[in-house]
Write a structure and sequence with these properties.
14% strand; Aspartate Aminotransferase, domain 2; seven-stranded mixed beta sheet; 13 strands; Aspartate Aminotransferase, domain 1; 48% helix; alpha/beta; binds pyridoxal-5'-phosphate; single chain; 16 helices; globular
Length: 397
């Protein structure tokens, strides 16, 4: 039976990871994989998570199933965190949500719901977007299209082109997939003023926002990183939100996330929640419990929450500090545009104007590993190797 099955090509990120792992040069710099690392290059478990785990281990009484929509306390706490406790949609019970297996599970569940609600619509994604958006959404059966977003020359968002393109191509009822903050892979986010224009633009044209919020808290701050989401929820009648706790709680392998549908009535919210439950049932039956139980514990316990807020700030400030250092180091002849972009962009990622050949030279001649697209994860650097990193980038550029 398996004779006809051919191997699939390796994911480019896995290729970079494997090559980096095999490299014995001690000075190597790994800017490939998209996880946060501390200054020693380690993705540690947060102290708040460890403490919550200790408590949870003492208190947990059962391992029975969590149900198809998962931990609803977790969903409520996360929605409060993202939308604010004063959110009208929350107060009025107009949000149907389900806990999912990470942000990826949330995106898939959202796409499956779209297949039920709007099977003939197109989901428009930014150019570029997170590579996994395409299979997660199109394998659910949704047609996908792309709108202009990142300009590889100015290293900023082509906002006017984005609006003009969507105006000409997206039809009423189509879905606009948006990165809530810390755009992956470019780091180029919409400004508050651009969100202020985009939200009514979508509302007037009957376009449906699908917001992926995978890095909130790691950009400029919790409030700043959820500005766009809040604006869209206040403006558009219906919104789909996929959120992840992988990065901001460093819970990567615990697969912790949620999907939420913000609607016009509490009755509709119940309908959508039941859809999420039924869809999840046929995909994975039920989400895993552990990560969501920890997040709930952290958000509900004052002292744990305080520790987490501080840990999140520390991660964010480290990334901002590295951006500042790399920007300063690149700010010499020929590197000015990169320097300015790196300083203005948000989160762990930036896409530099480097070709696959440049990235190969960086790897072979300088032991610097990054994606062939030019995407770097700034958290993979540290203060001591930034001068060498900047020199290497400028040497191949
Ligand atoms: C833009 C974006 N969305 C969603 C995710 C999903 O994250 P996870 O499934 O690990 O929670 C990621 C992870 O890299 C991402 O970069």
């Amino acid at each position: 039976m398996f004779e006809s099955v051919a191997p699939r090509p390796n994911d480019p990120i896995m290729v970079v990871m494997e090559k980096c792992k095999a490299d014995t040069r001690p000075e190597k710099i790994d800017l490939g994989v998209g996880v946060y690392k501390d200054s020693s290059g380690i993705t540690t478990i947060l102290k708040s998570v460890k403490l919550a785990e200790e408590m949870w281990n003492r208190e947990e009484t059962t391992k029975t199933y969590v149900g198809t929509v998962g931990n609803q306390d977790f969903c409520k706490d996360m929605l409060e965190l993202m939308l604010g406790a004063d959110s009208q949609a929350l107060k009025e019970g107009r949000i149907g949500a389900a806990q999912t297996a990470g942000g990826s599970g949330a995106l898939r569940l959202g796409a499956e719901l779209l297949k039920v609600a709007a099977p003939n619509a197109t989901v428009w994604a930014s150019t570029p977007t997170w590579a996994n958006h395409i299979p997660l959404i199109s394998d659910a059966g949704m047609r996908m299209g792309s709108y202009p977003y990142y300009n590889r020359e100015t290293l900023g968002v082509d906002f006017e082109d984005m609006l003009t393109y969507l105006d000409g191509h997206a039809k009423r009822g189509d879905i606009i997939l948006l990165h809530g903050c810390c755009h992956n892979p470019t780091g180029a986010d919409l400004s508050p003023e651009q969100w202020d224009r985009l939200a009514p633009f979508m509302e007037e044209r009957g376009l449906f926002p699908f917001i992926d919020l995978a890095y909130f808290g790691l950009g400029r701050g919790m409030k700043e990183d959820t500005y766009g989401l809040r604006k869209v929820v206040q403006t558009c009648p219906e919104v789909l939100l996929a959120a992840s706790c992988s990065k901001n709680f460093a819970l990567y392998r615990e697969r912790t996330g949620l999907i939420a549908a913000i609607t016009q009535s509490s009755e509709k919210a119940k309908v959508l929640k039941s859809q999420f439950g039924a869809i999840q049932r046929k995909l994975i039956s039920m989400p895993p419990d552990h990560g969501a139980a920890l997040v709930t514990r952290i958000l509900r316990d004052e002292s744990l929450r305080k520790i987490w807020v501080e840990e999140l700030a520390e991660m964010r400030e480290r990334v901002l500090g590295l951006r500042q250092l790399l920007s300063e180091a690149l700010n010499v002849q020929g590197g000015e545009a990169m320097a300015a972009a790196i300083k203005n962009q948000n989160g762990m990622f930036s896409t530099l104007p480097l070709s696959p050949e440049h990235t190969e030279r960086l790897r072979d001649e300088h032991a610097v590993y990054l994606m062939p697209s030019g995407r770097i994860n700034i958290a993979g650097a540290n203060a001591s190797n930034i001068p060498r990193l900047a020199e290497a980038i400028l040497a191949v550029h």
